[in-house]
From TrEMBL:
<keyword id="KW-0255">Endonuclease</keyword>
<dbReference type="InterPro" id="IPR020568">
    <property type="entry name" value="Ribosomal_Su5_D2-typ_SF"/>
</dbReference>
<dbReference type="Pfam" id="PF00825">
    <property type="entry name" value="Ribonuclease_P"/>
</dbReference>
<comment type="similarity">
    <text>Belongs to the RnpA family.</text>
</comment>
<protein>
    <recommendedName>
        <fullName>Ribonuclease P protein component</fullName>
        <ecNumber>3.1.26.5</ecNumber>
    </recommendedName>
</protein>
<comment type="subunit">
    <text>Consists of a catalytic RNA component (M1 or rnpB) and a protein subunit.</text>
</comment>
<dbReference type="InterPro" id="IPR020539">
    <property type="entry name" value="RNase_P_CS"/>
</dbReference>
<dbReference type="GO" id="GO:0004526">
    <property type="term" value="F:ribonuclease P activity"/>
</dbReference>
<keyword id="KW-0378">Hydrolase</keyword>
<dbReference type="InterPro" id="IPR014721">
    <property type="entry name" value="Ribsml_uS5_D2-typ_fold_subgr"/>
</dbReference>
<keyword id="KW-0540">Nuclease</keyword>
<dbReference type="InterPro" id="IPR000100">
    <property type="entry name" value="RNase_P"/>
</dbReference>
<comment type="function">
    <text>RNaseP catalyzes the removal of the 5'-leader sequence from pre-tRNA to produce the mature 5'-terminus. It can also cleave other RNA substrates such as 4.5S RNA. The protein component plays an auxiliary but essential role in vivo by binding to the 5'-leader sequence and broadening the substrate specificity of the ribozyme.</text>
</comment>
<keyword id="KW-0819">tRNA processing</keyword>
<keyword id="KW-0694">RNA-binding</keyword>
């Protein structure tokens, strides 16, 4: 089981990010919201993922960066929940929607719930 989160798995394309926010569907599980969209022109089944913490909700950069690090770590450890049954490529954006900083365990539980909901839909 590959637990890396390499360059090819990161969501970097500005076009794809804009398309994600315009046409994407969402799933919520407090304190995380997932916006996703299938990627059309992709040869292999892959997952392009980004994480975001709004400045409006978490004011200091130190706290925002810590939350993003924790979210990426949870994703890296648990991405197998989505990728094992993936039939096509998808772009994911995980957005933190709480004002308080959550523990690793709460983030992990929330991310697992979101991934289970996504698997049920697809």
């Amino acid at each position: 089981m590959d637990q890396s989160f390499g360059r090819s798995q990161k969501l970097k394309s500005r076009k794809l990010i804009d398309q994600l926010f315009m046409e994407g569907k969402n799933i919520k599980s407090f304190p995380i919201k997932l916006i996703y969209i299938p990627i059309k022109n992709s040869e292999k089944n892959e997952l392009k993922t980004g994480v975001s913490v709004p400045k409006k909700l978490v004011k200091t950069a130190v706290k925002r960066n810590r939350i993003k690090r924790l979210m990426r770590e949870v994703l890296r450890k648990n991405k197998y929940l989505v990728t094992k049954d993936l039939s096509s490529s998808h772009a994911f954006m995980f957005i933190y929607i709480s004002r308080e900083e959550m523990s690793y365990e709460k983030l992990e539980a929330s991310m697992k719930r979101i991934m289970e909901k996504f698997r049920e839909k697809h």
